[in-house]
Amino acid sequence: MPEPDPSANSGDGLPARWFPINLGILTTRPAHPRKRPRPHRFITDVLLPALFSRKRGHRTRTPPIFPKLRHGQISITWIGHASFLIQGPHGNILVDPNWANWLLVVRRLRHAGLAHHHLPNIDLVLITHAHFDHLNRRSLRRIAANQPIVVPSGVGDLVHGIGFEKVYEMKWWERLRFPSAAITFVPAKHWGARKVTDHHRGYGGYVIDMGHRSVYHAGDSGYFEGFKEIGKKLKPEIALLPIGAYHGPKFGENHLDPEQAMRAFEDLRSKILIPMHFGTYRLSYEPLHEPPQRLMQEATRSGRLPDVRFLVEGMPTVF
Predict the structure, then answer these.
(1) Would you tell me which of 136, 195, 231, 268 could form a disulfide with 98, CB atoms 3.0–4.6 Å apart?
(2) Are 117 and 79 in contact (CB under 8 A)?
(3) Residue 171 is part of which domain span?
């Protein structure tokens, strides 16, 4: 193609090779440029509003009535966030117990559904990873009573010396058997560092086998193909899946959004989905009401709404 003559003019005193470009700019520029959306700011959008928000839920002044389980039954009590009490015929298991009112600078926005001094005797404690909203040392000291605790590999040093009989560290797909249940540690798409320098710490979820009933606690995870593997190998009946903390830089890669939680539920081949990890601490930019609302919409769309069970904090539910 011949090069344009730079000395040739467009008729307006401009070089011909510049005229089409200038014309394009003039004809495509909108009369009223759109305003750029305001960038999210964690301090002003998340932290400061939480400081002035009234804490929701109710203080637990009286202990709940824990059910007497019949053969084949289990009971699940949501304490809040990712904390659960799981009761079976042979014992009581706590997963990620956390009663903290503050996670460093993040304030708790809902009262815990169950006070630590209202717990039954705890036979086993499970910790999914070392992040502050899942491993709270002060909470662990309160409930430690010479029982065993299970943590991912590289996390044992955080729970030694606070009152547990024995600390078990697990790697993915390892299995331990206790009088209360058999525990399988399974993969997740997340990370385990508690601070910048400790990337050696493991992370994952647990499948809790209590005889003929099984419960999967995912801990924290983004969506990944590993859910299909867990479903194929273990097919947990009840899936406790996180649905919040997905809106923010890199958050969506490591936390399920509600639609992905439904997809993971299908991959796991589970019968019941119990949502968690929403409404207690605001860790990302989505409004507190959004995760459950989106989950219900997606469950309705996929025809699985009857299989989604939202638990009331502090209320034991029999399955």
Answers:
(1) 136
(2) no
(3) 43-318
Contact 221, 242 (CB under 8 A): yes
Neighbour tally for 266: CB within 10 Å: 14
Distance CA 82, CA 278 (A): 8
Give domain status of residue 24, yes or no. Answer: no
Query: How do residues 3-48 score in pLDDT, each as one tens digit?
Result: 444 444 444 443 443 333 333 333 344 445 555 555 566 566 655 5
**219-250 b/e (C-beta count within 10 Å ≥ 16 → b):** bbbbbbebbeebbeebebbbbbbbbbbbbbee
Burial of 3 from C-beta contacts in 10 A (0-12 / 13-18 / 19+)? exposed
Q: Tokens 């004809």 belong to which residue?
A: 27
Q: Is residue 9 part of a domain?
A: no
* Nearest alpha carbon to residue 112 among 315, 318, 289, 317: 315
- 3-class DSSP state for residue 217? strand
Residues making up the chain, counted from first to last: 319
Residue 285 inside a domain? The answer is yes
How far is the C-alpha of 150 from the C-alpha of 26, rounded, in Å? 66
Reduce the DSSP state of residue 318 to 3 states and report it: strand
Q: What is the pTM of this model?
A: 0.83
Which residue, 182, 142, 189, is CA-closest to 163? 142
Which CATH number belongs to the domain containing residue 289 in this structure?
Answer: 3.60.15.10
Domain count, the chain: 1
305-314 tens-digit pLDDT: 999 999 999 9
Contact indicator for 106, 47 with CB cutoff of 8 Å = yes
149-152 and 167-170 as β-strands: parallel, antiparallel, unpaired? parallel
Do the Cβ atoms of 256 and 221 come closer than 8 Å?
A: yes
Tell me the β-bridge partners of 96.
none
In a domain, 19, yes or no: no
Cα end-to-end distance, the chain, whole Å: 76
